[in-house]
Amino acid sequence: MLPRLIALSLLLTPSLTLAADDLSSIFDGGLLKGKKLKKAIAAADTHPLGSEHNPVRVNMPHGQRAYLSRLRCGDSKAPSFERGGSTGPGPFGAIVDVYDVDCGNASPGKVAVYLDMYHHSHVEQRAVPGFTIVEP
After folding, report:
1. Helix 2-12 crosses helix 20-27 at what angle (to 10 degrees)?
2. Alpha carbon distance 52, 62 (integer Å)
């Protein structure tokens, strides 16, 4: 039910020009596959990892939480994080979520981290800028 409500709200939003087939593809794992996806990844990698233009690629909501749980702040402690919501289609053709990631008084402080959860076979090994990461 929720995906239908989101799709309906996106269709009624004048600033977005996605066809119904595009929305269905986004919820089914994104619009880009194969060589087009590889090209989009290469282009995204020119931007900082975790940014709006280069979201962290993960596997579904559990992959989002697993990735964020592996991040470490400047004091070597895990940050707290909270989902801020969906931001619409990202550079890989799927809906992107944003999380508020907070290190408290440690660096890098509070940052927004963007994640694309429609990359079923990908486990990101790199940390977003300002953090370190532990192995899965």
Report:
1. 140
2. 20
Give per-10-residue mean pLDDT for the chain (136 aa): 47 46 48 89 97 97 98 98 96 95 98 96 96 96
Please tell me what DSSP assigns to residue 82. Answer: E
**How far is Cα of residue 68 from the mean position of the Cα atoms in its chain?**
11
What totals of helices (H) and strands (E) does the chain contain, helices first? 4, 6
Reading the block at residue 51, the tokens are 């940014």
Q: Could you tell me which of 90, 115, 113 has the C-alpha nearest to residue 100?
A: 113
Could you state, in order of their start, the residue ranges of all structural domains in the chain? 2-133
69 within 8 A of 79, measured Cβ to Cβ: no
Q: Please answer whether residues 40 and 91 qualify as being in contact, where contact means their C-beta atoms are separated by less than 8 angstroms.
A: yes
Question: Strand 110-116 to strand 56-57: parallel, antiparallel, or no bridges (unpaired)?
Answer: parallel
The residues near 47 (Cβ < 8 Å, ≥ 6 apart) are 53, 54
The pLDDT value given to residue 83: 98
CB 101 within 8 A of CB 68: yes
